[in-house]
Here is the input.
Amino acid sequence: MSELLRLDDIWKSYSTPSGGEITILKGVDLTLSEGEIVSIVGKSGSGKSTLLSIAELLMPTDRGEISYSGRSASALSEREVQKMRGKAMGFVFQSSILLEDFSALENVAMPLLIQKEDRRKAFMEAERLLGLVGLDDRRDYRPRMLSGGERQRVAIARALVSSPLVIFADEPTGSLDEESAKDIESLMFSAVRKERRCLVVVTHDGEFASHADRMLTLSEGRLVDGKL
Ligand code: ADP
Ligand code: MG
Here is the structure.
């Protein structure tokens, strides 16, 4: 399997309100192969969201190197980074933001429409993915008419629609009740596997995390194999 993403010796500090500095990441290494599903667990405040933002090329690092398909991210122009984020990455958040004035189907198609894909193709692909997440019968619903779990399904379909190289999910079940969380967990893994995408999912739910191909723990600023 070829290597998709590599993080090499990533360091990150934040300044504190009292004028000090706190180092959150202290030499994180991570390699991700094509088609791999990796979960990252760790205590609240351990730096999981920080690490995702860095991998998503949203936040600069203090030290270290990030490369996608062997190409260093520091060699990319701002425009190339934007393009990568639009085309090569998909995102699912704890409470994913959907466009309230658009239907479920339009929300899923949106990334393709923004990339100026052919409208008919965009809607066909959006329809296929809504089917994959079990929402065929909700295609014309506005987000406010959907349950929390259904909104997350729309977000998963939308994250998959542009056939991204990798999907990043930060606590995707964090705002759901236990039963919907279980549904979304299994759906997320099966949809990503069916579409042969790569997934990095951050969660504090060890049970959820253990179903990934590989589970890592962020602890004391470093990623270690398995669960602590
Ligand atoms: P997690 O997602 O694991 O809960 P985060 O990455 O959100 O952790 O945060 C890690 C630590 O960094 C926390 O202690 C948080 O308070 C701190 N932190 C996050 N963002 C900032 C920021 N912009 N400025 C200062 N401290 C921050
Ligand atoms: Mg977080």
